Amino acid sequence: MAEKEVVETSEAQIAVHWQEEEYIYPPAEFIAQANMTDKTIFDRFSLDNFPNCFKEYADLLTWYEYWHTTLDTSDAPCWKWFVGGKINASYNCVDRHLKEYKNKTAIHFVPEPEDEKVEHITYQELYVRVNEMAALLRDFAGLKRGDRVTLHLPMTAELPITMLACARLGVIHSQVFGGFSGKACADRIVDSGSNVLVTIDSYYRGGTLLDHKEKADEAVAAAAQDGQKVDKVLIWQRYPGKYSAKTPLVEGRDFIVNDLLKDYYGARVEPEKMDAAEPLFLMYTSGTTGKPKGCQHSTGGYLAYTAGTSKYVQDIHPTDVYWCMADIGWITGHSYIVYGPLAIAASSVVYEGIPNYPDPGRPWRIAQDLDVNIFHTAPTAIRALRKIGPDEPKKYNYQFKHMTTVGEPIEPEVWKWYYEVVGKGKAVIVDTWWQTETGGFLCSTLPAISPMKPGSAGPGMPGIHPIVYDDEGNVVEPGTGKAGNICIQNPWPGAFQTIWGDRDRYVRQYYERYCKNPDSKDWRDWPYLTGDAAVVAADGYVRILGRIDDVINVSGHRLGTKEIESAALLVEEVAEAAVVPVAHEIKGKEPDLYVSLKPGYEASEEIQKKVMDSIINEIGKIAKPRNVWIVADMPKTRSGKIMRRVLAALSNKQPEGDVTTLANPEIVEQIKQMMQG
Length: 677
Ligand code: PRX
Hints:
Helix content is about 25%, strand content about 20%. The protein contains 20 helices and 30 strands. The longest helix is centred in the first third of the chain and has 17 residues. The protein binds adenosine-5'-monophosphate-propyl ester. Adenosine-5'-monophosphate-propyl ester binds next to helix 12, strand 20, strand 24, strand 25 and strand 27.
């Protein structure tokens, strides 16, 4: 089956459709201080001025050499931005700020235990630490421009330091979300061809100091089985000078970074002058097949786009204290904790732990203590904090000027709590819609220019021109109330360049569906397929309904149904597996798993547990299904295809529709009875 085909059961089909809300206007105090108040920005970034309009973002950066070609389309749809330009991301995020800001905090590291001191890392200290780490990566680990290195780090300051050290050398980092399993890390090591893994001994999560080094052992072993040898594992210490994991070090392979750094004391590494289109990093994400894909992001275009949007959408000034509560292991953290904010000299907060540890007042205490005035999080966290601590924000003396929501649709009711209680009615909110692939925001209001509308992301960003197509390729006009497949008409500098090692899949999955001419070198012929369904109101505000493909968005994180199903199929007794999205009060969506067993096996709790364990082991806890339903058979079409639509209806307690054409309609009633206990 071609990947472009729409699946039968998508998130979008089970989306809740809420009412169109009234506008809410930004407060005058916010507008008075905002970085972008000039409405003509939309004219400057109109399609008529494309692609040169993006010079405005690129000019926020310091270039060694200016580009000669803004957009090179000769290898369509692999777009190259700012060709001829030479730049270094580490230089732009660190060195160039020293003159004015060396004494200012770049990163506030907040440990999860409240009795541990917050670390305020100045730009000068960041400069020193990035340089010393870069020297170690180059001279001890032998890494050089173009090599890939896998990082499996949690939320500590060592993560951005390692990323910036790689960027300094032109080494392509591939950071794997710390919560992923060793096996998931191994898959990414293999795909990216990394022979160095950077990790940490331990970190705090929910009050427990987790042994993280054990995952490195699993990862290295599993990668070796798949033919990728990891020569060196570089291990940061959560407590410098003390090894705090139980797992022993492997002689000749494992090295303690904090010890090695002593040899690089005072080292300074000249930043590599990178071509703008050379890759900066890979970020793996789930897609429609079992194998996660490595989205390859560029250096110049990506940094220009994240710097521009951090300045104009996040409204970050060097004097602000900015806290994005996402994990740097996801794209939000790369773009809006590390690269975008640091490129514009922000003070960015890195918080180690979970939002509600030890209680739901924690985020607001951090905000109060650090005087955070820009706050950025996902609906899943907002829902959870609202549920367990609805009155907590009032108890603390902080005031945000700006708040962001990202990662999934936000219910107007939840939006209003965020606005009234967390923002105390005085902060603007931006609902930013985008993806791992897109590097930066696609749709959002500009906070001092456009009014907010709860539940809607807002119009296309300057220079981003959305268009909605129906399944036949007709344009769905704004204001018709009809949903369709939302695409972007034009390339933009933040967009990924390809899927690492798989250009065909990149073209097939993102561009084939609405391509007007596969031989064309004109960007106008290549609309980008986002994979989301959306409705656009008459005012151009976009409301996202969810995924149209086999991807489930759990707490704002993407999981491929095929990945979960493959993990279930590893259990010996399992014959078939099908995952469907189910609505969840806090997480937005959750996977629900159905399995049937091979002949001769009986359903048992033990098998259910084996399936759960396999999923946790292969992917991580994040992918844990709500239930493992062991069914006698799957509802199937006469041609033998599993009818996920029917299973999704059952999981979501919705009518299952017409099942008479199934090969085995009686199974639906049986499953229903089993689910009711
Ligand atoms: O379905 C959309 C949803 O998250 C998907 C992208 O997930 P990921 O690549 O993990 O990146 C998440 C952070 C950018 C999208 O295809 N999504 C993201 N932001 C929003 C959203 N859905 C509705 N509203 C949003 N603001």
